[in-house]
Amino acid sequence: MSISKSTLEILRNVRTSDVTDALDSLGHMNTYEMDPRIRPLFPGIFFAGIAATSEYRVVNNPIPQLTYEQFDDRQYKKGPDGKAAPDALWTGGSKMGATDEVQVIDTRQSRCGLLGSNNVLDAKILGTVGFVIDGACRDSGECIGQKSPVFAAVRSMRHMAGRLELASVNQPINCGGVLVHPGDGIIADDDGIVVIPQDLSEEIAKRAWLVQDKDRRMRRAFYEKLGMPMDDTVKLEDRPW
User: Fold this and answer.
1) In what helix (H) or strand (E) does residue 136 lie, and over which residues does it extend?
2) Transmembrane segments in this chain: where (predicted)?
3) pLDDT per position as a tens digit, 137-169
4) Chain centre to alpha carbon of residue 59
5) If you classify domain 33-196 with CATH, what class do you get?
6) String of DSSP letters for 54-110
7) Taking the domains of the chain in order of start, what are their residue ranges?
8) CB of 208 within 8 A of CB of 22?
9) pLDDT digits (tens, 9 = 90+) for 70-83
10) pTM to 2 decimals?
11) What is the rounded (10 degree) CA torsion for 118, 120, 123, 129?
């Protein structure tokens, strides 16, 4: 069962806390929350989308001493599609990224910077809305400046070449201690990351919206008593179903 556009739109109007409450109500306490060591590169990142998964294995293929031209050819030579080699490697030689996708990546907690300031932009052009990596992001300063929506376990300066190789694309993986299937929902904000199983997605989204609606009404009443100006977090909306 795939996640519908209408369900995805509901998920984009709730919080991870609402989703975990919904999961609790369905008997899934502490089941789909990723390890909190996977954190946003900067505060305020929020996304909800559909998981596209990839898995990498750690290898040890040291680079011998090379001339710079040899090194540049090895690391950054453009492929037939015009993409630099690192991007082709991390996407398995094909373009990865489609509308509403969240790239969910397991690198066995490696310190190799599989994500970086270049390939996150390339994937965004293709429609990716977020990145979750149980591993490292490099060029983190540039990624932050670009407002790239990355959750990573580690920041690192290391390149992946000679250290990681692709093991699978769009197969079930373990990321952050949670089994993620391609097509599952992913929601992430400052509190963390939650996986939303496809077969439960509609019910989870509806219950999460109800939790959020009740919270907005309660907080709105406090705003009024305290004389605080209203903001988007207490804006009341019609039920979307």
Assistant:
1) strand 130-137
2) none
3) 999 999 999 999 999 999 999 988 888 889 999
4) 24
5) alpha beta
6) EEEEE---PPPP--HHHHHHHHH-B-TTS-BHHHHHHTTTS----TTEEEEEE-TT-
7) 33-196
8) yes
9) 888 877 765 444 44
10) 0.90
11) -160
